[in-house]
Amino acid sequence: MDDSSLSSSVDVDKGFAIAFVLLLFLFLMVMIFRCAKLVKNPYKVSSTTTEPCLS
Length: 55
What we know:
Elements: H1 2-8, H2 12-40, H3 42-50
Helix pairs in contact: 2-3
């Protein structure tokens, strides 16, 4: 009986590993889209961040 209740419980280490992989995958997707936007139009993206304020 103890074995069946133990196997039905959630493994905490496995849950943390799955959550870490999902967050890493999400971060990778965001970085891919940002880099693709930069490659597509580098002047528009960089002009807003590097242009000094003259006013």
